[in-house]
Structure formats: C-alpha cells, structure tokens
Amino acid sequence: MKEKEFEELVIEAIGELPEYFREKMENISIHIEEFPDKNILRQLGSQSPYSILGLYQGVPITRRGIHYRNVMPDRIIIFRKPIIHKNRSRQDIKDNIKQVVLHEVGHYFGLNERQLDILEKEYSSKRKKINDNT
Fold first, then answer.
1. Residue 53 near residue 78 (C-beta atoms within 8 A)
2. Phi then psi dihedrals of residue 58, to 5 deg
3. CA nearest to 6, candidates 113, 111, 84, 117
4. pLDDT tens-digit series, residues 66-86
5. Is the CATH code 3.40.449.10 the one for domain 3-132?
C-alpha cells in the first residue's frame, strides 16, 4: 500500500472516531512513520520494529493540572510498515488503522488498557452493525 493511500485511511479513521472524542481533542498531532525507532523500541521493551503499531506520547488529559499550559502538542504516531505487514487485505489494513487510532486516542483521554479493550469492542461492534446495514 502506498504512503498516500495509507495516510488517507488514517485521516478517515480520525474522522470516524466517536464524536465525543473528536470534539474534545486539542493540542495533539498525528504522525505516520514507517517504523518505531530504536529509542521507542527500547523504551517499550520491544525487540521487533513490527511489534508496535502505534504510540501515544504526551500527558493524558486526565493527568493535566492547572499548570499544564503552553506545551508542545501531544503526539500520536501510527507505524505504517508494521500495520501493513500484519494484515493481508486492504480492508484488514483499514480496520487495523481504525483500531490503532482509537486505541492511541484513548490513551490521550487517559484510558487504561482494560478500558480501551472495552471501548474497542463496543466501537467494533457498532461499525460492524453499520456495515451490515449498508
């Protein structure tokens, strides 16, 4: 999959986030990189650059106090090559991008892994119902 097509799928995934997320997101940038670099792999305790699909870097909004001002934007990084490598079809890539974007945005909102798992399952079942009705 070409970079431009992948980027369009990431933009689409952002646009399909639940409205309550999209409305409250601010001071955050979303980047696409080919692979996590060695520093990221080391920080996350991973050996393989294919093992990490996305990453949130920043201070979750639930941990920000009154002194949290004038800071650089938080970052979400989506790693293109690991996602492409993991999936067989364009549709699988598209679905995985949506899942990764939702997961990383969830970290921005301070959700833990258990909460994210519940959110991802709910969101996935809603998307499936919508797709089944079209």
1. yes
2. 155, -165
3. 84
4. 888 888 999 999 999 999 999
5. no
